[in-house]
C-alpha cells in the first residue's frame, strides 16, 4: 500500500527539483514495528527524483556498524549521504512534521549549501573535536524540525559534528534514559550538555560550545 499520495509525490518532487548532486538514503532495518513502513516510505521518496536513491541494509550487517546505525540497538535508522557528508542521521520514521527537515536536508546535502550565514559556518568549523548533537522529537511537534535542521547543518559544514534526530515515541527507552519531558530536547555528547527549544542557530551553537 502506498504511503504517499500522488499529490504528496508531486509536491515532494517539486521541492527536490532543487537538487544538484546525488544523495543516498542508507536505511537500516530489523524486525521493529515501523521498519517496513520506513522502507516503503524511503522507496517512494526516491521515486520522486532521479538524484535520490535508497540503499537498504540489514541491521546486523557490516554497513550498520560502519554508519553507526546500531547505536540505539534497533531500527529504523536513516543516514543521509551526499558528497563526503554522512553525519546526518535519523533514528525513527522521518514523517509527520519531520518530513520538512528530511526534505530540506536532502536538498541542502545535494546543493552543498546549508542555510547558515558565512560567519556562522566559520564559527561551526572552529570545532575541532568530535561532537554528537542529539535532537529528541515527536511527529507532531512544530518546533522540532527547525532544531533538527540546525543540528544537521552543523554536521554538513564540519566533519567532526554528527547530528541525530531521535523520534522519542519509537525510541522510548533512549528518551527515558535522557529524561526527555519536552521536545525538542537537544543533548550534546550525551549528558555533557542539554537545552530545549528551536533556538536561533547562533544561540544553538553557543549552547553546543558551552557543553564542550
Automatic annotation (TrEMBL):
<keyword id="KW-0813">Transport</keyword>
<keyword id="KW-0249">Electron transport</keyword>
<dbReference type="InterPro" id="IPR036249">
    <property type="entry name" value="Thioredoxin-like_sf"/>
</dbReference>
<dbReference type="InterPro" id="IPR012336">
    <property type="entry name" value="Thioredoxin-like_fold"/>
</dbReference>
<protein>
    <submittedName>
        <fullName>Glutaredoxin</fullName>
    </submittedName>
</protein>
<feature type="domain" description="Thioredoxin-like fold">
    <location>
        <begin position="132"/>
        <end position="208"/>
    </location>
</feature>
<dbReference type="InterPro" id="IPR011903">
    <property type="entry name" value="TON_0319-like"/>
</dbReference>
<dbReference type="Pfam" id="PF13192">
    <property type="entry name" value="Thioredoxin_3"/>
</dbReference>
<comment type="similarity">
    <text>Belongs to the glutaredoxin family.</text>
</comment>
